[in-house]
Amino acid sequence: MNALSRIDELANLDHLFSADELAVRATVRQVCADKVDPYVATWFETGQLDDVRGLTKEFGKLGLLGMHLTGYGCAGMSATEYGLACLELEASDSGIRSLVSVQGSLAMTAIWKWGSEEQKQQWLPGMAAGELIGCFGLTEPDVGSDPGSMRTRARRDGADWVLDGRKMWITNGSVADVAIVWAGTEEGVRGFVVPTDTPGFSAPLIKHKLSLRASVTSELVLDGVRLPADAVLPEVTGLRGPLGCLNEARYGIVWGALGAARSSIEAARAYAADRVQFGRSIDGFQLTQQKLVEMTLEYTKGVLLAAHLGRLKDAHLSRPEQVSLGKLNNVRAALEICRTARTILGANGISLEYPVIRHMNNLESVLTYEGTVEMHTLIVGEKLTGQSAFR
């Protein structure tokens, strides 16, 4: 029995899922084993994700990009299948799951949900195939948790729109073919489909990261970007547009963080079985077993919560505060699992020969993006009390 089966079989977690769902999980696990795992430590160390387009095309062949959407070349899979895919992607690396999440749950979902038929036909098939890469411009240098205060503006000039502003911490930005950019207008916040070869648009790469290093992260600069009238997403005005997309990405994180946790538990259990101190392997000592048990317990609870939220979403019963509950719990638990796993590995825990420190560093970003701990706490708190405490 291998490490993975000991961790998942303790509570027989596979019983939660259908044969089709397990087949999706197995497919994603295999492509990650072939195309990501042999290289990801090097990508992280160098801070460069090699051949991004080759990787997106591989994911596109499997239907992983926008896999929960229907039509336009999208796979139309269930929310639970998408969740299991996110778990396997993040078991390889959070940056790889981010690549898929931003492409499908943010950029593609914005077009699919709020775009015109012409916009959908123009962009979605190529994005689903991985031939085109998208990014999602919401966060700004001085605006994170309060998107209503964004400074990026779009003004009408005759029949055109002209965009000016900055976006920050944008996954896929420097490699994207299309950016979904949210900007304030006289009508309220609107979304714009911006081809990245439009004059005035640039996406300088953000360097010196110590987290999500196997991920392309960029600033978006919009200096007088002129767009035709039909570049605006016609079906939404206001913050419900970007927030509706963010909720899809947050759902993927509920599952994805568990992949980083599982990988770290596997590494710690295998290491403890091989590491000999005081004449015996350290997995025979009580304190090490306690750590392994506590990590597995928290992981198991996280999977149960994710599966429950997946079933609710598949039944069209999911609410945003439930996703916030899942993100708040599972990312926080996964980060603590990684920290505990690191202690079992001792000094080796900081080496990229093992995945633990990489997962731990990555989760520091996952803890913050798509809503900080504080924001999700207040979302859940408002539902519990009926009182908004954001201001």
Tell me what the structure shows.
This protein is an alpha+beta fold. The chain has three domains: 3-128, Butyryl-Coa Dehydrogenase, subunit A, domain 1 (Orthogonal Bundle), CATH 1.10.540.10; 134-238, Beta Barrel (Butyryl-CoA Dehydrogenase, subunit A, domain 2), CATH 2.40.110.10; 241-385, Butyryl-CoA Dehydrogenase, subunit A, domain 3 (Up-down Bundle). Helix content is 52%, strand content 14%. It contains twelve helices and nine strands. The protein has helices spanning 3-9, 19-35, 40-46, 52-61, 79-92, 94-114, 117-128, 240-274, 286-314, 320-345, 356-366, 373-385, and strands at 134-137, 153-157, 160-171, 178-185, 188-195, 201-202, 217-227, 276-277, 280-281. The chain has a four-stranded antiparallel sheet, covered by helices on one side. A hairpin with a 2-residue loop joins strand 8 and strand 9 (280-281). Helix 5 (79-92) packs across helix 8, helix 6 (94-114) packs antiparallel against helix 7 and helix 6 runs antiparallel to helix 8 (240-274). The model has no long low-confidence stretch (mean pLDDT 96). GO terms for molecular function: fatty-acyl-CoA binding; flavin adenine dinucleotide binding; glutaryl-CoA dehydrogenase activity. Its cofactor is FAD.
